[in-house]
Design goal:
- This protein has a single domain, classed as TIM Barrel, CATH 3.20.20.100.
- Helix content is 34%, strand content 14%.
- It has helices at residues 28-41, 55-67, 89-103, 147-160, 173-182, 201-209, 242-251, 255-264, 277-284, 293-300; strands at residues 6-8, 15-17, 21-22, 45-47, 77-82, 108-113, 163-169, 189-193, 213-217, 227-228, 234-235, 269-270.
- The strands form three sheets. An eight-stranded parallel sheet has the order 3-4-5-6-7-8-9-12.
- The chain is globular, with a radius of gyration of 19 Å.
């Protein structure tokens, strides 16, 4: 069985791999070797961000693989993201240039706005990455940086070719609809939290109808812990869920592969992370089966509206999804 392994992006026609490797929570001490080994294992999409604090080491891993001839630069699809404290129009390009320099790359394939949250600027030489707070502050502080001005700066980076594509992350339909009224360059992708406990069916359908590709993060949901939702529902780890296990046994696959395949069957890209090379190889081995209508119906019943990446639950006084 041969299946398409890429999504064609709207403006450039560039092919973005449907399965990549996410760099969130990869310790800088491990990042160079982890990324290098992931590329050796067959990963061709690397998803990072300035806020992850490991771009220097991720870049070293990428360049090590290129230098050794494992891949050429054009074989890789490198993604990174603009952090919230750099939304003011005068701060966008300097932040991007810092990220390119840190990674040791001449361009990235996709540059995303990490969150639609304009935080007060923190100078690069004062704290980097700055996180959510001003230095020494206990509350987040916003600034008057309109999304329209930010998007114009993103478009300039795309027009320069230093980012082949530009896109968004953690945006809802209302904000995307507004952005589309003034965008000269439509976002190539939207990256959002997606898993069987948070399926966001209508969001995915609507965004794809606009010609915008979707990437899922946190595909494994509560990967290794029990999570209690605000309304009292309990959610057991998806990797051990009886429904997912039954489907995995039926197809002769792991539960991780089933969870990733669930997104692929919606034409949604995935960026799983594993520090284990064999699991990374297994995560890539998801193109030789599909889920049945019966499988999809069973997974649809797991919806809980359970979101793990919620700034409001971090004590930020930011109900982003309300």
């Amino acid at each position: 069985m041969t299946q398409e392994q890429h999504i064609v992006l709207n403006r450039t026609g560039q092919k973005m791999p449907l399965c990549g490797f996410g760099c969130w929570k990869v310790d800088p001490a491990d990042a160079e070797e982890t990324i290098y080994n992931a590329i050796k294992a067959g990963v061709r999409l690397i998803d990072g961000a300035g806020d992850y604090g490991n771009e220097v080491e991720v870049g070293r891993g990428i360049n090590k693989a290129i230098k050794e001839g494992i891949v050429k630069r054009e074989d890789l699809f490198v993604v990174t993201k603009l952090w919230n404290t750099f939304h003011a129009k005068e701060n966008v390009r300097p932040a991007f240039d810092k990220q390119l320099q840190d990674m040791g790359l001449s361009y990235v394939d996709l540059y995303l706005i990490h969150f639609p949250v304009p935080l007060k600027h923190v100078a690069i030489d004062a704290a980097y990455p700055p996180g959510w707070y001003q230095i020494g502050a206990k509350d987040i502080e916003f600034e008057r940086s309109p999304m329209q001005d930010l998007w114009r700066e993103m478009e300039k980076i795309a027009e320069s070719g230093d980012a082949k594509n530009i896109g968004i992350s953690n945006f809802n339909v209302q904000l995307i609809l507004d952005l589309l009224t003034y965008a000269n360059i439509k976002p190539a992708t939207l990256q959002v939290e997606l898993h069987p406990y948070l399926q966001q069916k209508r969001l995915v359908e609507w965004v794809q109808k606009q010609g915008i590709a979707v990437t899922a993060y946190s595909s494994f949901g509560p990967a290794s812990f029990i999570q209690l939702t605000d309304d009292g529902k309990t959610a057991e780890p998806l990797l051990g869920h009886p429904v997912i296990k039954t489907i995995a046994e039926k197809h002769g696959k792991s539960t991780a592969q089933v969870l990733l395949r669930w997104s692929l069957d919606r034409n949604v890209a995935v960026i799983p992370k594993s520090m284990n090379v064999e699991r990374t190889k297994s995560n890539l081995d998801i193109f030789n089966f599909t889920l049945t209508e019966e499988d999809l119906a069973a997974i649809a019943k797991l919806e809980l509206g359970l979101r793990f990446n919620n700034p409001d639950s971090y004590g930020f006084e930011l109900p982003l999804w309300s």
